[in-house]
Structures are given as structure tokens and as C-alpha cells.
Design goal:
The protein is of the alpha+beta class. It has one helix at residues 101-138; strands at residues 48-50, 55-62, 65-72, 77-78, 87-89.
Length: 146
């Protein structure tokens, strides 16, 4: 008797192969740039390029877990990212100091959002103070006066 093929794993019931977790995608289904939290260029970003063709991604154990690490075959050590003279970005977002332009744009957008929220709060406080003054003129008691 012949069993039907059960996917990855051959005829011995290997089961389905688990794929990697999906990369974060931006608008249009393209991968999003992945700068480091401090704004520096990340060698694991999908747009990072090594002009020396020496970049390779290896899995390295760290604290009991396998972690992806960018490795430079030219110097035989971990990649130093945006500070390397052979580093490049496919989106031309690598700045001369080794930081990512997208990280700076994201930081600027956050600051603008905070400023917008502060402006809205100031407007609401002004409207509330106007309403309180009007209520006092009309003789209504406020909770603060009790």
C-alpha cells in the first residue's frame, strides 16, 4: 500500500516544514528598513549591501538561543555595519556618520506627533478655562469651590 506524500519530510511522516517568521513589510509589500534602536545602520537590514561582497549571515548561539549575526568574510569577524568603508544601502539611506536616514525620519515624526498632541491639549485647556469663567459669571458653583 502506498501512502500519499505528506509534504516536507518524505514518506516517513515528517510533517510540514515550519517556515521562518515573516519579515515586516511596508506599503506595497516591500521589506521595511530595519535600523538599530540607536539609529545606526543595521547589517541585517534587507537593504544593507557590502561593496566588497564579504557579507554573510550566520547563526550563532547566544544565551542558549540561536541568533542571526552579520559576518564579514574579509576580516573574519562580525560586521561593523555602517561604519565600514565598504558599507552601502540600496535605498541610499546610509548617512556618512553610519546612521540610517529612515531612523532619523521616524524620530522626527515622533517629535512632530508629540508637538501636535501638546497643541491640542493647550487648545482644550483654553476652552475649559473659558467655559469655567462663563459659568462663574452666570453663578454656577464649581466642584473646586465646595
Amino acid at each position: 500500500m502506498v501512502r500519499p506524500h505528506s509534504g516536507y519530510g518524505g514518506w516517513r511522516g515528517g510533517g510540514q516544514r515550519r517556515g521562518r517568521e515573516p519579515r515586516q513589510r511596508g506599503p506595497g509589500g516591500k521589506p521595511k528598513p530595519m535600523p538599530l534602536p540607536d539609529g545606526r545602520c543595521n547589517p541585517l537590514c534587507p537593504y544593507f549591501r557590502c561593496l566588497n561582497n564579504a557579507l554573510t549571515i550566520v547563526r550563532k548561539p547566544s544565551h542558549g538561543r540561536m541568533q542571526r549575526v552579520a559576518y564579514c568574510r574579509w576580516i573574519g569577524d562580525e560586521c561593523i555595519g555602517g561604519s565600514c568603508q565598504y558599507a552601502s544601502c540600496a535605498l541610499k539611506a546610509l548617512l556618512p556618520d553610519g546612521t540610517c536616514l529612515y531612523a532619523k525620519e521616524r524620530e522626527q515624526a515622533r517629535k512632530e506627533d508629540i508637538e501636535d498632541i501638546e497643541k491640542e491639549l493647550m487648545k482644550e485647556e483654553e476652552e475649559m478655562s473659558k467655559a469655567e469663567r462663563l459659568m462663574r459669571r452666570r453663578g454656577y458653583m464649581l466642584d473646586e469651590e465646595l
